[in-house]
Amino acid sequence: MILKFLELIGRKKVVLDRGPSHPRFDEAKPWMNRYYVLFRNRPKWFPFNILIHEMLDDDHGDGVHNHLCPFMTIILRGGYYETLKDGKHWRPPGYIGFRSANTFHRVDLKPGTRPMTIFFPGPFGLRNGPRSEYGIDFKTKIK
User: What is the pLDDT of residues 17-61, one digit of tens each?
Assistant: First the structure.
């Protein structure tokens, strides 16, 4: 019910699995439903936001990504596999994860599931280095 309300007031965004600058943007498909609980457009000076993510598909490609800011996530429904430099881990409902802005990871879903999380992005400006890397080998590239 809260998700329908957030959609009604313009706080839902369908996030595609690749942006317009991607060479195969014409093949983009829905990757996540994002619901803005606190700010639709958070001011840069505000230290956090509250989002609900309904994941529709795995992270695309073979790569990993990090985020613009540190974050905390709580899995509300479904669970997912998260790959970090120390391996692939199952994250069940109720899992609470804290990540720095520089933590490379990827998320993969069990077929036929639509996990839901509450996502708390923290302050901007704390990431160093690139946003994503494809074909990364955690054992040799990430320290």
Answer: 777 777 777 878 899 999 999 999 999 899 999 999 999 998 876
| Stated pTM of the model | 0.85
User: Strand 80-84's sheet: what is its strand order?
Assistant: 87-91, 80-84, 106-108
Domain at 2-124, CATH from 3.40.50.20, 3.30.420.40, 3.90.700.10, 2.60.120.10: 2.60.120.10
CA-nearest of 101, 2, 111 to 52 is 2
d(Cα 75, Cα 44) in Å, to the nearest integer? Answer: 26
Instruction: Locate 118 and state its tokens.
Output: 């509450």
